Amino acid sequence: MNTLKIISTICLLIFSSLGLTNQSSFEEDLRRFASNDSVGYSVLISQSGKVLYQDAFGLANIELNVPMQPNHIFEIGSLTKQFTAVGILLLAQDGLLSLDDNISKYIPDITTTKSDVTLKHLLGHTSGLVDPINTPEFLSTRIQESVSLETLIAQFKNDHWQYVAGEQAHYSNVGYSMLAWVIEQVSGGTYETFLNERIFKPLKMHHTSQASFKLTTAKVTGYTFDDSEPRQHDFVNLNWGYAAADLLSTTYDLSLFSHALMQGKVLNQAHLQTLLSPVILNDGVQSLGSFTYSLSRIWNVEVIRMSGSTLGYSSHSIYLPDTDTFIIALSNSDGVNGGGWIPPATVTGKLAATHLALPIPNYKKIQLSKQSATGYIGSYQLDDETIRKLSFYDGKYYYQRNDDPKYEVIPMENNSFYFEGSLNYFQINKVDTEKRTMDFYYFLNNQAEVALLADE
């Protein structure tokens, strides 16, 4: 796993010497994003299988005023895909299939038209399949309908292959439903039965299952937002997300799986490396992700991340391979309608920063006078095609990239501004001089994108 090592040995030594931050700091992080009278979060931090912190805030059911509990069950959305990918790799490990198998071997009368499509293409979202399941039109007209896996595949197996396989990455839920069909054809049982026998039961994941309309004890209610007010989410039949976004689980069960997987207790090292290696396109370009995970960095530490969402639920996980640390946040709200939703990626990111004792901002609002605004506002040139603008009116600061929509930003200490509900921020350097810059920092990245104040 060479690609997953910490780039700087010095940073590793620093982080290992810092030790664990006390529980109250994690609790403060979580309280920043959750209130006691609205939707909530269940979070967990574990290292080498040992739980370092586990808690929950907010309400599992707003109408009944039921507090969120750490053992509550959530829809985990696309976090499901990692289990499907592992299922395919388990069958490959058993010698029952090859990742180079053409999908036509398992789905009769399929017409991919553009090129031959393999299981590996489907795993890496490079098959050329473009399905409409996540489009607003489909979500508003079809997602409520009942559908079987066989019918779902029959509907999308032809006429939706828009690109040559391996030419580009295009996220596809249906591609993973097709992989579930392969698992069922090869294993001789259902997708859920296979996962139960090979993953859930061996790892004692007692609260993980495939979603259905059966009652599930301890499952939280999911919500969306209209403006700042939560409401019940729209109806969805999760069979449309079969094996792509239809599993239920808890923070603890997901921790059990992550540690077992990453320590080679589910897949052997060769197949684990296949799971975690970046996807390579036909032109040799390496993507920023593996089959199901995003491969990125927090500060100088390599991390493996994954997000998931369904109507009413959202999730995000971060794994730090060098210390076998897992951080997960599950929420009973989504970002479909905007409003008061704080992404679980923000929550897990802040917990990770606290755990690693990273020198990030406090993200606490300060008051700035109108007179002070003149030292910050202006247009900043990032490159030949990108202008970043900071403006001030009606007592508020606004950020705009080119002609994109404007977003309010909140002033904080050290001449900096942050986006509410996000860990992204920028700092204005050399204030009140003609050479000042806007240094933009994305999600816990310590390397800034520097834009220079443009000539007015």
Structure characteristics:
Lipocalin; Beta-lactamase; 456 residues; six-stranded antiparallel β-sheet; eight-stranded antiparallel β-barrel; globular; 2 domains; 12 helices; disordered N terminus; alpha+beta
Description:
The chain has two domains: 2-355, Beta-lactamase; 370-453, Lipocalin, CATH 2.40.128. It is 25% helix and 24% strand. It contains twelve helices and 21 strands. It has an eight-stranded antiparallel beta barrel with strand order 14-15-16-17-18-19-20-21. The protein has a six-stranded antiparallel beta sheet with strand order 2-1-13-12-11-10, sandwiched between helices. A three-stranded antiparallel beta sheet has the order 5-9-6. Strand 17 (407-412) and strand 18 form a beta hairpin. Helix 2 (23-33) runs antiparallel to helix 11 (344-355), helix 3 runs parallel beside helix 7 and helix 6 crosses helix 7 (173-187). The longest helix is centred in the middle third of the chain and has 15 residues, at 173-187. Mean pLDDT is 90; it is low at 1-21.
